[in-house]
Design a protein that fits this description.
With 178 residues, the protein is α/β, with parallel strands linked by helices. It folds into two domains: 114 residues, Rossmann fold; 56 residues, no CATH class. It contains nine helices and four strands, in the order βαβαααααβαβαα. A four-stranded parallel beta sheet has the order 1-2-3-4, sandwiched between helices. Helix 7 links the parallel strand 3 and strand 4. The protein is globular.
Length: 178
């Protein structure tokens, strides 16, 4: 079973349930969603708004929807996405991958602007038997963009850019391994 980005968390959780021979996690987070949101927002929000963010996260993590969401946070915590967030906040990707007894491949690109390389390392640390492959220059869309910011942006709307050959090699080698 394989999953990319948020799908990596889903794949790890599904593999815990059994039925898969191996698990492949591509550009998956290595921290729970609430930790990621806190980290992303701590330097971007003024203290009063960050306190509101914390209040909302604590409530959602406890499984309780939030009625009062300040307008600047509405994009993140709109009532329509709160059920999804409540569900997502229940999961710790490190615990999920640590519970796996099957072969695990963790793939991450160094040019991914959505999921940092450190997240893959967190997953690998939680599952020491996992194989970690870091593809130099690969972005979140699995395209080779290196440090070229223009190519990075172009890749988000250019289906003609090929998938990273290194990713394909690592993935096919893992699947073919005895």
């Amino acid at each position: 079973m394989a999953g990319h980005s948020e799908g990596a968390q889903i794949a790890a959780e599904a593999c815990k349930q059994g039925g898969a021979d191996a698990c492949v996690l591509i550009a998956g987070a290595g921290h729970p969603l609430d930790d990621i949101l806190r980290d992303q927002l701590k330097d971007k929000l003024p203290p009063p708004l960050y306190a509101e963010n914390e209040r909302i996260l604590v409530s959602l993590k406890a499984g309780k929807p939030v009625d009062k969401v300040p307008q600047p946070l509405m994009t993140l915590y709109h009532p329509s996405v709160q059920p999804y967030l409540i569900s997502s906040l229940r999961h710790d990707p490190r615990a999920a991958v640590a519970a796996l007894t099957m072969p695990v491949l963790i793939l991450q690109g160094t040019s991914d602007i959505q999921v940092q390389e450190s997240e893959a390392k967190e997953l690998a640390k939680a599952a020491p038997r996992a194989k970690l492959v870091v593809v130099d220059g690969m972005n979140h869309l699995l395209k080779m963009v290196g440090k070229d910011e223009a190519l990075q942006q172009k890749s988000y709307g250019s289906p003609e850019l090929p998938v990273s050959p290194q990713l394909i090699d690592a993935l096919s080698g893992f699947v073919k391994a005895p």
